Structures are given as structure tokens and as C-alpha cells.
TrEMBL record:
One GO cellular component, as annotated: extracellular region
One Pfam family recorded for the sequence: Peptidase_S8
Official protein name in the record: Subtilisin-like protease
Active site: D163, H238, S603
Similarity remark: Belongs to the peptidase S8 family.
Ranges annotated as spanning the membrane: none
Source organism phylogeny: Eukaryota, Viridiplantae, Streptophyta, Embryophyta, Tracheophyta
PANTHER family, sorted: PROPROTEIN CONVERTASE SUBTILISIN/KEXIN
The organism of origin for this protein: Morus notabilis
Gene Ontology biological process terms in this record: proteolysis
Boundaries of every Peptidase S8/S53 domain copy: 154-642
Keyword line: Glycoprotein, Hydrolase, Protease, Secreted, Serine protease, Signal
Domain Subtilisin-like protease fibronectin type-III: 728-822
Length: 830
């Protein structure tokens, strides 16, 4: 009995400790951001209508309904969550009915069981994903000429940008009183929100609207008031770069560090700009991004540019049904063309972050322009590198002493820093000024650059403080090659990212450097000079798919199971693009003080497509988003400026392989053909506004293993109609992730010309398949439609996707190309 009492006291103690631990856990539960969607229709689609296209988006009915939605959000939170346990950040009410809330996981879990709640998803955060590209893409002689030149190209079209904001004082966004805008923007209703660095006068006619969204950012972290400005002002530079690439004024001089690099022009230089700042130097949240998307569609933008978004696929739902992609679906339903960066996670397969067929996913390429720099060694050999800097003293002909940084370490006194910082030139105190002054100093990639604690900015500071004649930042054999882009240096500097090239330099250096028994250098006899690195060369074979550009195949879940949609959709210049910048440059100190920057990323490719879409919309004002995206895709080219198949960069420097649709989508955009494609992919199943949306719902309902209840919960639509196969979605491409035996796929094309045209059909079948088309030729009436039946059969099972193409050649000169991406699994149906 005593023993039992003792055990009981122990259990009581244990229980007490457990309760203390549980209480501590509850007290320590950290808040997070959650996105919640509700069942009632948002204002844009009240009663099944599309208010943004019917002109009623600001009607009394619409405003009253939006107010009711906000009240319902407040009441739900008050009745479900504990008082003081949450903060509502934003109510979505135009294209999405829902809200963002800052609360704990345990409180958020209560919302999942509430009647009327569809989805509760944790905010995954968001990441940021020219002087020459108009000429490279043929705009000056092509589309611009047809639309009245650069003074008219894009006028009447509003492009919305969800990004880091805009630098309103930049000349790329200046209003020209001698060439005022004459287009009627009565359908557009933005606003100008003033704040730090952004007076109300910033909305000048070129910038027609500017808003900022910060509720998510302010809830997620403590903002840095010195850079996280609560205004539409861009402290990063990224948003300004994107906006000017799409719609910057034509002919703006690009001057960096006193050197003239040419003149910058946006793709649609007369398009007008609507800014929706949702990304801050310190943090970016999907709460703010989705809030911005909702507002942009309400305001009435024609095209929405997203060089920002989730950087990883959702973990607990299919890729198409996360809240970000649902918001894009509803933007498309409202008649807005959504252009989205494919991602910068290449060159591995299945790395795209643009998943859905209702958004145009853009891959990045280089152009034929390069900025070759070089290091001239004392033996006459030249080693190529990268660096937008002037030459060393003597215009690169006067040879300076060449010094390896680790051979110039201070020998007297103590230096507390690690040896890696010495060879990385990160501190003036680490190097002997008598050795390095007036020398070309070799700084080596080492541990600090590997773990992100070192920077090229620190190298430049050291070089200036100690009076280097110039610096060379080189790869380290212990770490391998590194990826480099040209950076504007205000002192002579060069990046040499190839270990093989560095070995040439080090071999020469060691042969001309005399060392004592202790390995200390007694005499530096190696000589070198840095050549001019700011003059462009136009000899490169181009385009080439950039190494960083994310690849397909598209996938349906976090396990990366492939799906029947081609991603990316299209290729555009995105490597080494000159465009506007913000002098604050809060996230990239090496570009501080500059008004232009040479930047790379699919973020830079995306606005090229947005601007070109604006030109197509101006030329064909009645076209729907599906028609515009179809025209862009079917007229793209898969061949470079030498007439060869476009190549793609691999993992190692200099490695290239022939690209496939999973690298470049339909190919490199060809604007002069896209404004007159002949045929577009279009459906007559429903009315114009709803056609594409209904098709997308049917596509979702046809996905293998999809539970109709999941669709109903996610987007509020019943699966009353589904496609016989997901590949039957009427896209300008055909992707089949698992072809077993045979499959018949249908497509519908529309003649957008005002005259009949006869088309002859040809097929290049993917390996392991046969492909036949019915009809093999057809004549299509003006504005008429034609159904095509594509029969695919497996002749040999393959271990991976193989690729082909359907080509429709018209009697009036139109050529329509449809990429085929097929994985032949088995000859026989199982």
C-alpha cells in the first residue's frame, strides 16, 4: 500500500511536470501568417458574372458585397479564435474571398473546421525570382514600326507589377509633356499612395497608379525603417528593373560610373505602369503578394507581371491548388493575362516554380551581346574574365606588379581574422600596403565566399584603401568554378570564375615569384594589366538557355510527379539585361549609387514577355489572354542566330546541350510574328469571358486521382464536366506524362485573320511514338474554328520524355508550331 502511494506521488509529479512542459510549449508557440479562403463568391464573380469585364467592378452592388465579405471575415475570426490571439492582416474580396491572419498554429487549426472555410494555408513567403533586347528581338523594325514607332508602341495598355516598388524619379518613368498620353483609361481605376521617398506627384501619367502592401511584412518581422519604406518606393532596384524592361521610356541613356553603355528602351515604351509593392528588403510574404494581385485586378490592369512568388512547391496540396496559383487562376478568369517567372533553380530537371496552365511561365536566355574583359600577363598571354570596369593604368598596356593576396599578408603585428579573409582581400588591415600599393592583386574565392560572409564589395573597399592598381577575383581549385556575371566596378577589376583559367595565371605567377626557404616571397617579378571590360561584343551564338533558368517537366506535387502541362511556356532574354535601378540598392550593396544595373534572372525575362503581350494587346485589342499567350507560343523559334537548335547551359561552366521544350518551352519569343499568328488556340464551348476558366476547371477535374471534393473546397466549383484526359486542355502545346498504348488528343484553333487560309499539317513525332493528324489539311474561314484530332501511339517504350513538333503551314505565310513532349511508357495498355 505504501509502495502504491509512493508510485502515485511519482505519477502526480510526472503529470505536474508534463503540464508545466505543455504550458511552456503553448506559451512559446510562435505566431505565423496564414491565408484563408471562404466559400462565398468574391466581388468580381458575384452571381457568376465577371465584374471587371462588364464594367461594374465599382458598382454599388460590388462595393456592398465586398463590404459584406470583410464583415463576415471579422465575425468569423471573432467567433472562432481567442481574443488577443490573432491579428487580421488583410481581407481579399475581389478575385478571392478570404483573409490573411497572424496567429498561432493551434488557433489556425480551429479555422479549418469552421463551416464556410475552404482552405487554410501557411504563408510560405515569397522571393524575387534594356539597352539591347528590343533590337535583338527585332522590335524596332517589326512591331514598333507597325504600331507607329516607339512613340506609340504599347499606348493604352496598363501593365501591373507586383514587386519591390519603383524608383519614380528615374528617367525611364518620366512623363514627356511634349508627347502626352491620349488613350482613354476610363476602365482603369488605380490610386497613388504617398509615403517616404514617394510624393503623390510620383504618379505622373507614365506611372498611373502606385500602392504598397505591408501587413504581412510587418507581422512577419520587425521592419528596418532605413530601407523598408512604407510607400511604393523601390529601395531594392528589382521592381524598377522589371518595370523599365517591360514599359520603360525609349532611348534613355545608360550611364554607369561615367561610362555610356547605350540607350535603354522597354518592350512597350508607351505602355503605362501600375505598381503594387509587396516585397521589402527585409522580408516578403504571400499575404502581401496575394493582396497586391487582388488589388491589381480590381484596378483593371491588362497584364500582370510576377517576377516574385513562392520559391518552393507546396508540400500538402497539388501544385495547381495552392492559394498563390488559385489567385492567379481567378486573375485569369477576370480577363488579366498573368506572366510569371519560371524560377532560378536550374539547370536541374523539375525545378520550375510556375506550375499552372493559366499563367505564362517564362524561362531566361542570354543574347549575342557580351562584355569580354581580360588579364594580360607579362608573358603576353591573355586570360578572359568578367568585369564592367575600365583598364588599369596605361589603358591596360602598362604592366603592374602581380601579387597573390596571401603572399602580401602583414608580417608584423597580429591580425585576428581568419587566413581565408587574407586571401579573399576582405580587410585592409590584413595586407601589407607596401606590397600591394600600385599592384594587381589576386584575391581568391575561399571559405568566406562559400559560406556567404565575404563579398566583392569588401574587396573593392580594400583595393581603394590600399591603392591597388586593380584586383582579380579568381576561382579556387579547392572549391571549383563559380558562377559570375559582369559587375560595374569603379576601379579596374576582373572576375575569373574558371579554375582552368586561374591555373594559367598561377603557373605564370609562381614561375616569376622568388621565394625563400620559409616560402615567403623575396621578390615579385610577375607582371599583369587589366584590359578594358566595358565595351560590348556582339559575336556570341545566341540565344542560349541560361544555366540558372528553371527546367521542366512540370509536376503536380511535392514528390515532383510529372503532369500533362508544358513548363516553362516561353523563352525570353533574361541574362545580363540593362535596366533601371534604385540607388539605395538595399539588397545588393555593390550596386549602391547606380541608376542602372546589368542583372540576370527569370525575373528579367518575365517583363520582356509582359511588354510584348502589351504590344499584341494594343494591335489586337479584342483578344483574350488565351489568344495572346497562344500567339506568343506558336510563333516562337527554336533556332539561334546561326540557324542551329538553341543550346542550354549545363551545370559546369562552358557545358552546353541541345535544348528541349523543358528548357525553352515553345522557344524564343518572336514579336513580329506574334502580332499576326494566323491561328490561335480557342474554344467555343462557353462565352468569351468564361471559356478559359471553365476549361481550366475541367482540366483540374480530369487530373488522375483527383477527388472532386478537393476542387470544390479549393475553388468552389463542382466537377460537372471534365476532360477525357488532362492533355485535352486546349493549350498551344501537347504534353503527355505517361503514354500507354495510344491516346487521342483534341485541339481547337481559330483563324484570327479576316480572310480564309488553307493549312497543311506536318508532324515530327517524338522518339518511340507515331503521331497522325486529322484532318491532314484544312481551309479555315475568317474568324472560323477548326478541330484537330491528334492520335499518338507508342512504338517503343522509353526511359524518359522525348520530343517532337506539329507544324501547321498556311497558304498566306503563317506557320503555327505546337511542341510535343511525350513519355512513352508501354506499347500495350495495362
Amino acid at each position: 500500500m505504501a509502495e502504491f502511494a509512493s508510485l502515485k506521488r511519482v505519477e502526480v509529479i510526472r503529470l505536474g511536470l508534463l503540464m508545466v512542459i505543455m504550458t511552456a510549449d503553448c506559451l512559446a508557440e510562435e505566431r505565423a501568417l496564414y491565408l484563408v479562403t471562404m466559400e462565398d463568391e468574391p466581388a468580381a464573380f458575384l452571381g457568376g458574372s465577371n465584374l471587371s469585364h462588364k464594367g461594374h467592378k465599382h458598382s454599388e452592388v460590388s462595393r456592398a458585397h465586398a463590404k459584406r465579405l470583410v464583415n463576415s471575415h471579422d465575425k468569423l475570426l471573432q467567433s472562432t479564435l481567442e481574443t488577443g490571439s490573432y491579428t487580421k492582416l488583410h481581407s481579399f474580396k475581389h478575385i478571392v474571398n478570404g483573409f490573411a491572419v497572424h496567429t498561432t498554429p493551434s488557433q489556425a487549426s480551429k479555422l479549418r473546421d469552421v463551416e464556410g472555410v475552404r482552405l487554410v494555408e501557411k504563408d510560405r513567403g515569397a522571393k524575387l525570382m534594356t539597352t539591347y533586347t528590343p533590337k535583338f528581338l527585332g522590335l524596332r523594325e517589326g512591331v514598333w514600326a507597325q504600331e507607329g514607332g516607339e512613340r506609340n508602341a504599347g499606348e493604352g495598355i496598363v501593365i501591373g507589377f507586383v514587386d519591390t516598388g519603383i524608383n519614380p524619379t528615374h528617367p525611364s518613368f518620366a512623363f514627356n509633356p511634349f508627347n502626352p498620353f491620349t488613350s482613354n483609361l476610363s476602365r482603369f481605376s488605380g490610386a497613388c499612395e504617398a509615403g517616404p521617398h514617394f510624393p503623390a506627384s510620383s504618379c505622373n501619367g507614365k506611372i498611373v497608379s502606385a500602392r504598397f502592401f505591408s501587413a504581412g511584412a510587418q507581422a512577419a518581422t520587425t521592419l528596418n525603417t532605413s530601407v523598408d519604406f512604407l510607400s511604393p518606393y523601390d529601395a531594392v532596384g528589382h521592381g524598377s528593373h522589371v518595370a523599365s524592361t517591360a514599359a520603360g521610356n525609349a532611348g534613355v541613356p545608360v550611364v554607369v560610373n561615367g561610362f555610356f553603355y547605350g540607350r535603354a528602351s522597354g518592350m512597350a515604351p508607351r505602355a503605362q505602369i501600375a505598381i503594387y509593392k509587396a516585397v521589402y528588403p527585409t522580408v516578403a510574404t504571400l499575404t502581401d503578394v496575394i493582396s497586391a494581385i487582388d488589388q491589381a485586378v480590381l484596378d483593371g490592369v491588362d497584364i500582370l507581371t510576377l517576377s516574385v512568388g513562392p520559391d518552393e512547391p507546396p508540400e500538402d496540396t497539388i501544385t495547381f491548388l495552392n492559394l498563390f496559383d488559385i489567385a492567379l487562376l481567378f486573375a485569369r478568369r477576370a480577363g488579366v493575362l498573368v506572366v510569371q517567372a519560371a524560377g532560378n533553380k536550374g539547370p536541374g530537371p523539375s525545378t520550375v516554380v510556375s506550375f499552372s496552365p493559366w499563367a505564362v511561365g517564362v524561362a531566361a536566355s542570354g543574347t549575342d551581346r557580351s562584355y569580354p574583359g581580360c588579364l594580360l600577363l607579362g608573358n603576353g598571354r591573355k586570360v578572359g574574365g568578367l568585369g564592367l570596369s575600365g583598364p588599369s593604368l596605361g589603358n591596360g598596356l602598362f604592366l603592374h606588379k602581380l601579387v597573390l593576396a596571401r603572399d602580401a599578408a602583414r608580417t608584423n603585428g597580429s591580425f585576428p581574422e581568419t587566413p581565408s579573409l587574407i586571401e579573399e582581400c576582405q580587410s585592409p588591415q590584413a595586407l601589407d600596403p607596401r606590397v600591394v600599393r600600385g599592384s594587381i592583386v589576386i584575391c581568391t574565392f575561399s571559405e568566406g565566399f562559400s559560406n556567404g560572409t565575404s563579398s566583392v564589395t569588401a574587396i573593392i573597399s580594400t583595393a581603394k584603401a590600399l591603392g591597388f592598381a586593380g584586383f582579380v577575383f579568381v576561382a579556387n581549385p579547392s572549391y571549383g568554378d563559380f558562377i559570375a556575371e559582369p559587375i560595374p566596378f569603379d576601379i579596374p577589376g576582373l572576375l575569373i570564375p574558371s579554375v582552368a583559367d586561374v591555373q594559367v595565371i598561377l603557373n605564370y605567377y609562381e614561375r616569376h615569384t622568388h621565394r625563400g626557404e620559409s616560402k615567403l616571397v623575396r621578390r615579385f617579378r610577375a607582371k599583369a594589366a587589366i584590359g578594358e571590360g566595358r565595351v560590348a561584343s556582339f559575336k556570341s551564338q545566341a540565344p542560349t538557355v541560361s544555366r540558372f533558368s528553371s527546367r521542366g517537366p512540370d509536376f503536380i506535387d511535392a514528390k515532383r510527379n510529372p503532369t500533362d502541362v508544358l513548363k516553362p511556356d516561353i523563352l525570353a532574354p533574361g541574362q545580363r539585361v540593362w535596366a533601371a535601378w534604385s540607388p539605395i540598392s538595399a539588397s545588393d550593396p555593390i550596386l549602391e549609387g547606380l541608376s542602372f544595373a546589368l542583372v540576370s534572372g527569370t525575373s528579367m525575362a518575365t517583363p520582356h514577355i509582359a511588354g510584348i503581350a502589351a504590344l499584341i494587346k494594343q494591335y489586337n485589342p479584342s483578344w483574350t489572354p488565351s489568344m495572346i499567350s497562344s500567339a506568343i507560343d506558336t510563333t516562337a523559334t527554336k533556332y539561334d542566330n546561326h540557324g542551329q537548335v538553341i543550346m542550354a547551359e549545363g551545370f559546369s561552366i562552358g557545358s552546353l546541350y541541345p535544348s528541349t521544350p523543358f528548357e525553352l518551352g515553345s522557344g524564343l519569343v518572336t514579336p513580329s510574328c506574334a502580332i499576326d499568328p494566323g491561328l490561335v488556340f480557342s474554344s467555343e464551348s462557353w462565352g468569351v469571358d468564361e471559356a478559359g476558366y471553365k476549361d481550366y476547371v475541367a482540366f483540374l477535374c480530369s487530373l488522375p486521382g483527383m477527388n472532386p471534393a478537393t476542387i470544390k473546397i479549393a475553388i468552389g466549383e463542382s466537377c460537372n464536366y471534365s476532360l477525357t484526359h488532362p492533355a485535352n486542355l486546349n493549350l498551344p502545346s501537347i504534353t503527355i506524362s505517361a503514354l500507354i498504348g495510344s491516346l487521342s488528343v483534341q485541339r481547337t484553333v481559330r483563324n484570327v485573320r479576316n480572310e480564309p487560309e488553307t493549312y497543311l499539317c506536318a508532324v515530327l513525332p517524338p522518339n518511340g511514338t507515331t503521331v497522325s493528324l486529322n484532318p491532314p489539311w484544312f481551309t479555315i474561314a475568317p474568324q472560323g474554328t477548326q478541330e484537330l484530332d491528334v492520335q499518338l501511339n507508342v512504338t517503343k517504350a522509353m526511359n524518359d520524355f522525348s520530343f517532337g513538333e506539329i507544324i501547321l503551314t498556311g497558304s498566306l505565310g503563317h506557320i503555327v508550331k505546337i511542341p510535343l513532349s511525350v513519355f512513352p511508357i508501354s506499347v500495350q495498355k495495362r
